Amino acid sequence: MALQNGVDIKTVSSMLDHYSVGFTLDTYARVTTDAQLKAAQTMGNILSRAV
After folding, report:
1. How far is Cα 26 from Cα 42, in angstroms, rounded to an integer?
2. What is the distance between the alpha carbons of residues 45 and 14, in angstroms, rounded to a whole number?
3. Is this model's pTM higher than 0.70 or not?
4. Mean pLDDT of successive 10-residue segments in the chain (51 residues)?
């Protein structure tokens, strides 16, 4: 839920006491995939306005 609400991965990893950010990303890949899609859409919108 933290990732979905904009908390950065490094902070989430630290809060969960994971040994690495990579472990956190592997564990919560579904959440980060959704975030990546949203980020790609946002960047597409920004770039389309810049052209």
Report:
1. 24
2. 32
3. no
4. 85 95 87 80 91 73
